[in-house]
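Notes to self, asparaginase:
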Amino acid sequence: MNQSIERLLVLYTGGTIGMQQSAAGLMPASGFEARLRAQQALEAGPLPSWTFRELQPLLDSANMQPTHWLQMASAVRDAVAQDDCDAVLLLHGTDTLAYSAAALSFLLLDLEIPVLLTGAMLPAGSPGSDAWPNLFGAMRALQAGQVHGVQLFFNGVLLHGARVSKLRSDAFDAFAEAPRKRLAAAASERPPALLPQRPAQVVVLPLYPGVGAAQVRALVASGAQALLLECYGSGTGPADDVPFIEALRHAHRQGVVLAAISQCPGGHVDFDVYATGSGLRDAGLVSGGGMTREAALGKLFALLAAGLDHAEVEHWFCRDLCGEMAD
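result:
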């Protein structure tokens, strides 16, 4: 049954969609609410009523940081608790849009209202821009009750917030759900509400010929609470590099969460296929299955920010929480 939207919050964080030209180039600009209302008067068909909020400072999403994920999640929760909003449309730059969609999928895991993210490849008002079609298309998807949980709307398509990646930088169909193998859907334990208590530091280490113990030790020394390894193929790596494996073991003993995903666009971690995979598992890595980098990073961040301990983070990381691992 479709749920009507009566109190929609449009949360503007910056990004290309509302940028205007400056002496230094395109920059996020305030005053987007007036532009949006003026354009809506030209739109055909009904749209939900909405209120508007700018999240300060407005950002080019290339400047997005994990602390901004917490700021956005807090703003969404405030919209529900204080303003009784029943949906949120979040306007965001495209460079890190998939990362924010994934992080919010976990940070808002317990929230029952739909949260939809969108942005644009060209600023609103530019000739041939996709800004208004994306924005009003997102509003109509919300109004029609098509949005569930955290999703992304782009180029006329609804996408899963914790499965999407930006695959192109020069076309309107820039986003897609990566074709990764996923676990069969199964009854799962009920996950905890991941209410942030503090920021968390998660570091991604892509494997490449030449990576070694020095890189692992440097990242651990930087304060990393979790190390996400982007492994080869089905979850393999230099298991015959004794110092590298020992550095991983040492990090794990220190309480650093070690997790693995595949660096292949269609990859899936299965440590049992190759000895070089089981070697990583034995060093303390847990499998992210077919999760994308964006999903695995956001999931680790949310689990650690909620104050879960090492064993709890490992437990929940390997389980499907919002469809990021299961079809």
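- The chain is about 30% helix and 20% strand.
- The chain has a mean pLDDT of 94.
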